[in-house]
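FORM 7B: Structural annotation worksheet

SECTION A. Query
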Amino acid sequence: MNIIQQLRNEEGVVAHAYQDTLGFWTIGVGRLIDERKGGLLYPDEIDYLLANDVKRKTDGLNDALPWFHLLDERRQAVLIGMAFQMGVKGLLAFTTTLSHVRVGRYAEAAVAMLESTWAKQTPERAKRLSKQMETGEWQ
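SECTION B. Predicted structure
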């Protein structure tokens, strides 16, 4: 036994946010994140989580779209950003957009992006990402 094992046994391991016995939001192994009680995530922890999320989305897109790795970094970022927001499965429903991207018709892909329900739900984000898809420049 060591402190890590002991804390895991005492606190339990929970893979989602939950309210502890006093009603404060907690994650993982008793990690308080509820700001009402002084809980938080530190910047390095946020960066670690984000890097893991980006890697998982990138891996998922590489698996689902054999041509994904051929895109430039900025256009990959558009698809990663969309997958980050709605999941890889959600992005894969953008069949028209993806068919245009696959063959390098980026202006047409941008138009298709803007004609989606996603664009109606998050219009400013959709405008930025569609412009990045069309121009290949960071927005």
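SECTION C. Observations
Helices lie at 3-11, 43-64, 73-92, 95-102, 106-114, 117-121, 123-135. The radius of gyration is 20 Å.

SECTION D. Sign-off
Analyst initials: ____
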